[in-house]
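Data availability (excerpt). The following record was deposited with the supplementary files.
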Amino acid sequence: MKKFILLLSFMSLLAISELKAQWRLAAGIDVLSTPFFENIPKYRFGAEAQYFMANRFALTGGLEFIEKDLGGSAGFRFYPINPVFLRMRGILKENSDLALGMGYAIGLNNNWRLETMADYFAVSGGFAMRVGLAVKL
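Predicted structure:
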């Protein structure tokens, strides 16, 4: 009987945590990245899933397409004052990088957001500004 009550409590806790949890899918493209004045601009865009573990903290993971290379990303977002967020992502590919940035999310309606972000790439020393869309699931 104790095992049954423990199992029921555990399942209830999972159900409650899932009710509070929130998923978002986001995609964005860099509109400006260093070096700024090249004959051939760098193409960089990505898509990620965001899992909000708490009201102000989300784990993120996704794909990054940088010029001709496809890589993954893993990181987190912190919202000190909503809609402003700080983010850190590891770009996982042949030449891995660490992106540190911040952004601002503009709510279009209850489910859709327009996001603007700026990232500094610690390993390569680059800078990029990105615009994207996010949808709440």
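Summary of structural features: Helices lie at 2-20.
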